[in-house]
Write a structure and sequence with these properties.
The complex is a heterodimer of chains A (511) and B (147).
Chain A lengths: L11 H6 L3 H22 L8 H20 L3 H4 L7 H11 L14 H16 L6 H21 L4 H6 L1 H9 L5 E5 L2 H6 L4 H4 L15 E3 L5 E3 L27 H5 L5 E5 L22 H19 L3 H13 L6 H30 L7 H9 L3 H19 L3 H11 L17 H31 L4 H30 L3 E2 L3 H5 L5
Antiparallel strand pairs in A: 1-4, 2-3
Helix pairs in contact in A: 2-3, 2-7, 3-7, 3-17, 3-18, 5-7, 6-13, 13-15, 13-16, 13-17, 14-15, 15-16, 15-20, 17-19, 17-20, 19-20
Chain B lengths: L18 H18 L15 E7 L6 E10 L10 E8 L7 E2 L1 E6 L2 E8 L2 E11 L5 E10 L1
Classes of the chains: A mainly alpha (511), B mainly beta (147).
């Protein structure tokens, strides 16, 4: 059966292969970002009526998980923060002696882990979702930091090592049905120039390569060199790249390949981590404890984030504040985070790892490697929770964008009708829980399948005794999956309670 | 290297810094210029108009479901403000929540009772617009927590 290849589809394929495709998408999202920033700073400071909060916390989040589920990391592809990289690169090359390499000590995901946790904590502590002003400043901060990092450091350091949104997209894209992949490996083996990783735009300082821009290399067939292309800035060498981790779908490799040998190919979601090969630019997942930590933060963070929106969490916070004798919610929240992101993962994953290792008969295998390997199997369950949570907000309020835009347009004199504030839900309220539950169940199913597949490949054999070991190795992780599934369902049936920044807006109000 | 629009005809690597950036900057300027025409008025705080407006809730901490808000209005001289037309809208603090519009149930002297149907627990903002008999709008925003 021929493989699905998005680049060979009519319209979509030619568009994505057009060298300005990414720029066009980025410019569109840059315009949206500009509107978000403006309205966040100067528009009505009421979250449901402001483009910043509606756009960022409702539509961006809702759409990003849906797109990751049905396609791939398209939001990194269209990332507006990377538009400024052209400028940053120009400054760096001319004034900073081509910049610095990213520090060796930081060539991992630990900084990203810290930033993601900091973001989640700030999100809850400062109710970022309820503040258009803070949302705008968050976007501004993102632009400034991305620009500064790209100006000083070479390559795509910001994307690979810093960007919390990008890390979430890397996490989510493990369950995506598309990946950027080589079409024919022998072509790569015979390729003399490896443009997908080495290409740099021709400049006066870096003259054209000795070969022709167009030609034919016999078995390799025709080639066309793109003088503007650059190789992967995230150090992913296509022939040895496996899956979507660290891939921003920037299309650089596709534009650089002289043989048109890279596609956006369909695949079985999650299959990329069933095996544990050496991956270009990454290494082996089982040896990357920083990556495993990042996955743990996103898996358990999914539940923590959803837990923060239901009624029981406020009773818990009040009880903690009383017990800690604290006037600020910060200590209680920090304790909840410590339990949710450290204690529970350590206890559950260590227990599962010990059981899994024992039942697989692999007692000599390092426990950390077992945990790092199987943590990826929990990704579908974690993603299912993000999907259910964000879809809830998107499906309950997706249409509120219409009156918000009408209000915005009216304020700037481009619309004279009434804003239809009575629209909001995308689907009937009665459909919400079934939809969310299906997403959770699908996530659980994906994790169970993944746990079996990881165990199957780790054990290697397939006779009767091996099957018992495979089952034994997978079962502890399936139990963790079921516990997460149960907790997720419990969260979904709780009454929601959405606290915000009452104090911030109450100043000057007569009551 | 000096910059000019003719630079756009150069190879992309020589653009200083890029056409993309110029488009972005142009878009940003246009957006801000357009929006500056009027969007800011929406964010204006309640002006100090001298009117005294209070709001109480029955029950004091409303629960999800029907509830009643009672407003009292007095003019700058302290006299009861009768015959005002009230519009009351409740908004949650979270994006994506459909507003709840209140229905005036009774008006007696300076006291107006408005029925609300709270749809979710959490933080709400009640926006009151009271149009006086002489056509003046009194605007207030009240925070309230629904259990």
């Amino acid at each position: 059966m021929p493989r699905l290849d998005l680049l060979r589809w009519p319209l979509v394929g030619p568009f994505l292969k057009w060298r300005h495709a990414r720029t066009v998408m980025q410019v569109i999202l840059f315009g949206v970002s500009a509107l978000i920033i403006f309205d966040g700073l100067f528009g009505p400071q009421l979250a449901p009526k402001n483009l910043a909060t509606v756009g960022a916390w409702l539509h961006y989040r809702g759409l990003v998980v849906l797109v990751l589920l049905v396609a791939g990391n398209l939001f990194c592809m269209a990332c507006p923060f990377m538009l400024s990289r052209q400028v940053a690169r120009w400054v760096r090359e001319r004034f900073l002696r081509n910049g610095l390499p990213w520090p060796r000590a930081l060539r991992n995901k630990w900084l990203a882990v810290a930033l993601v946790v900091l973001f989640f904590f700030s999100y809850e502590l400062f109710d970022l979702w309820a503040s258009p002003w803070w949302t705008a400043w968050l976007a501004i901060g993102y632009f400034v930091i991305a620009f500064a990092v790209d100006m000083v450091f070479q390559g795509a350091s910001f994307c690979k090592h810093i960007c919390p949104l990008g890390q979430f997209n890397f996490f989510g894209s493990l369950v995506s049905p598309l990946e950027i992949k080589v079409r024919d490996l022998p072509t790569c083996a015979a390729c003399p120039t490896k443009d997908c990783i080495t290409a740099k735009p021709f400049t006066t300082k870096t003259p054209r390569t000795p070969r022709e821009e167009k030609g034919n290399l016999g078995e390799l067939g025709a080639f066309v060199v793109n003088p503007d292309a650059r190789g992967c800035e995230l150090a992913l060498f296509q022939p040895r790249k496996v899956g979507n981790m660290d891939c921003t779908f920037c299309l650089d490799c596709i534009h650089a390949c002289p043989y048109d040998n890279i596609g956006i190919i369909g695949r079985v979601p999650t299959a990329e981590f069933w095996d544990d090969p050496f991956r270009s630019g990454i290494g082996r997942f089982s040896r990357r404890f920083d990556l495993a930590a990042l996955m743990i933060v996103f898996v358990f963070g999914a539940y923590l984030n959803a837990f923060g929106m239901i009624k029981p969490v406020y009773a818990l916070q009040a009880a903690l504040a009383q017990a800690l004798n604290a006037s600020s919610p910060a200590p209680g929240l920090a304790l909840i985070f410590f339990v949710g992101l450290v204690v529970l993962p350590v206890v559950s994953l260590t227990t599962a790892g010990l059981m899994s290792r024992a039942l697989a008969g692999q007692q000599t295998r390092p426990l950390a490697q077992v945990i790092a390997r199987y943590t990826f199997a929990l990704v579908p369950m974690g993603f299912g929770m993000w999907l259910a949570h964000y879809s809830f907000h998107f499906l309950t309020g997706g249409l509120t964008l219409l009156p918000v835009i009408q209000s915005f347009m009216a304020d700037i004199g481009l619309y004279s009708g009434a804003s239809h504030w009575n629209v909001g839900t995308v689907v009937p309220a009665g459909w919400l829980f079934p939809i969310e539950a299906v997403m959770l169940y699908a996530g659980g199913f994906g994790s169970i399948v993944a746990a079996f597949q990881v165990a199957r490949r780790d054990i290697g054999e397939d006779d009767g005794a091996a099957r018992a070991r495979i089952l034994g190795s997978a079962v502890p992780w399936i139990i963790v999956t079921l516990l997460l599934l149960g907790f997720g369902l419990w969260i979904l049936i709780q009454p929601m309670e959405m606290r915000g920044t009452l104090m911030m807006l109450s100043s000057g109000v007569t009551q | 290297m000096s910059w000019s629009w003719s630079a756009l005809s150069r190879p992309r690597h020589m653009w200083p810094p890029s056409r993309v950036f110029d488009f972005g900057a142009l878009l940003l300027v246009l957006t801000f210029s357009l929006a500056a025409c009027g969007r800011m008025q929406s964010a204006a705080p309640a002006e100090d108009d001298g009117y005294a407006v209070t709001m109480t809730s029955e029950p004091a901490t409303p629960a999800v479901g029907p509830g009643v808000l009672t407003f009292t209005l007095r003019d700058p001289a302290g006299a009861p403000l009768e015959g005002a037309t009230l519009t009351v809208v409740g908004n949650m603090s979270h994006a994506g929540m459909v507003p709840v519009t209140g229905a005036v149930q009774s008006a007696s002297g300076d006291t107006y009772q408005v029925g609300m149907d709270w749809t979710m627990a959490g933080d709400w903002y009640v926006d009151l617009t009271a149009k006086t008999s002489d056509g003046k709008d009194i605007l207030r925003r009240f925070p309230i927590q629904v259990k």
